[in-house]
Design brief:
With 77 residues, the protein is an all-alpha fold. The chain is built from four helices and no strands. The longest helix has 15 residues.
Length: 77
C-alpha cells in the first residue's frame, strides 16, 4: 500500500477540488468541498480498494490524509 495511490483514490472522491491540492499533509476536513457525503464516499472507497472498514470516528480522528492513510494501513495488517 502506497500513500501516492491512496491520495489518488482519495482525490477521486472530490469533483471540484483540483488534484494538486491533495498531499499527505492536506487537512481534508478544511477543504471547501468536504462533506459528510464525501466522507461516506471515502469510507466506501477504502472498503472497496483496501478491504478495510473505517468508522466515522476514524474519519473524525484523522486530521491529514497521511493520518487517514496510517489508520487504513494499520487496519489492513
Amino acid at each position: 500500500m502506497e500513500i501516492k495511490e491512496f491520495i489518488e483514490n482519495f482525490a477521486a472522491q472530490f469533483d471540484d477540488t483540483d488534484a494538486s491540492v491533495f498531499t499527505p499533509e492536506t487537512v481534508f476536513h478544511e477543504l471547501d468541498e468536504y462533506s459528510s457525503l464525501i466522507a461516506l464516499s471515502i469510507i466506501a472507497m477504502v472498503d472497496e480498494e483496501y478491504d478495510v472498514t473505517l468508522k466515522g470516528d476514524d474519519m473524525r480522528a484523522a486530521v491529514t490524509i497521511q493520518d487517514l492513510f496510517n489508520t487504513v494501513k494499520a487496519k489492513a495488517e
